[in-house]
Amino acid sequence: MSALTNLTLALPAPVKTEDLIFLNTIPRLTTLSLAIHGTNHAVYPEAGKHLTSTHLEQRKSKVSSLTVEGDPFFIFWSTSFFCSPLLHTLIGKVPKNVQGNLVQGLLLIPHILHMVMHHNPKAQRLSIEWDGTLPGHENWSFGDARTSLPADLYSSVTRLRNIETLSIHNVPFPEVIKHLSALPSLRTLRLVPLSSIVFGQQTRPTAADLARIRAKFPSLRHLTILLQNIPNVPPNPPEMTHPGHGLTSLFIVPASDLEDELSVSELIPLATYLDHLFPTLSDVTSYFETRVQTEADSDTLTSWKNLNQLLKSYQNIRHQAVQLGKSLSTTHGGASNS
Fold first, then answer.
1. What are phi and psi of 99, to 5 degrees?
2. Tell me: the pLDDT tens digits for 182-199?
3. d(CA 284, CA 267)
4. Secondary structure E strands in the chain
5. SS3 at position 72
6. Do 170 and 128 contact (CB within 8 A), yes or no?
7. For the chain, N or C: smaller number of CB within 10 Å?
8. Which of 118, 87, 92 minimizes the C-alpha distance to 105?
9. Maximum CA pair distance of the chain?
10. Helix count (H) and strand count (E) of the chain?
11. Contact, 307 vs 284, CB < 8 A?
């Protein structure tokens, strides 16, 4: 055990903090994957005390990469135990079959990520997702002080200077685009929170926020984002920069279902806007190809396939213009030499 560096472990429910202590005795353990089987208990932290240690062995772990699969409460307490300045990667996966009062534990997701950001602002990868769907109207306890947003959540987000992957998918999370500072190392950004849950009076990002993303995240290569008011774009497309931003994949998830597939006249302004922002886009559809379950999903996929054709035509025209310019330059250069 003393030489063990990587461990995958499945634990029977319910899991208590005491059940995790033995993992601190493995001196070289740096990569840990935990899963829970069975029905866990819905145990909330005290209001405003999600950063407070509850055990002497808490946060003494040397684990730098933690993957936790289970209900939100299991993910919360596991992260709370192993969270330390050494933890640079957290991957949380909430399975589809989480039901009952455990589902409302999803409101702890902001607290889970806040813990890691607070204890290690040099975190490199933060990812948390849920595979399930809400069965209908949910009586979410937004008035519960135990699940109210951490007071310094946004300031913690702005300190993520080393983050390379930030992925929030199908879980409750506030709008953070406007709060993110310049992140020079960020390569993958996935911001697709549950569209049916909005914190306070917040509004979702729009296409106009893509210009902010271009300016703040120069290394970004993969972006999946929930946007409202699609296909509306700002009236004047931004100026193209040279050599242009290097984003290669962009998946725009409409905040509300499209009523019909978008027409060419609706897609042209959107394609022009995106081409000016991200001239090297190569994929705007693959995210949606495995998610066609409703007619609205089909309309979205068809719309983005048509968008892809427009983007490719713009790129081809630009490429041909560059080649023509090079050809003319060579011709004129040869003529002057003669």
1. -140, 175
2. 899 999 999 999 877 767
3. 13
4. 6-12, 31-37, 65-69, 89-94, 125-130, 165-169, 188-192, 222-227, 249-254
5. helix
6. no
7. C
8. 92
9. 86
10. 7, 9
11. yes
Collapsing DSSP to helix, strand or coil, 118 comes out as helix
- DSSP-assigned letter for residue 282: -
Compute the residue count for the chain: 338
Contact between 5 and 29 (Cβ < 8 Å): yes
Structure-block tokens of residue 227: 């946007």
Alpha carbon distances (Å) from 15 to 43, 53, 147, 186, 278: 11, 17, 21, 34, 46
Element (H, E) at 181: none
Torsion angle in degrees (nearest 10) through CA of 63, 147, 157, 254: 110
Q: What is the pLDDT of residue 336?
A: 56
SS3 220: coil
Residue with tokens 């595979």: 131
The rounded distance, in Å, linking the Cα atoms of 30 and 87 is: 9
- Taking CA atoms, 235 is separated from 154, 205, 207, 258, 294, in Å, by 30, 17, 11, 21, 32
Residue written as token pair 């630009």: 318
pLDDT at 137: 52
Ranges of beta strands (E only) in 173-268 are 188-192, 222-227, 249-254
Q: Residue 50 carries which side chain, given as an amino acid letter? A: H
Q: What is the pLDDT of residues 205-219, one digit of tens each?
A: 999 999 999 999 999
Q: How far apart are CA 273 and CA 201, in angstroms?
A: 28
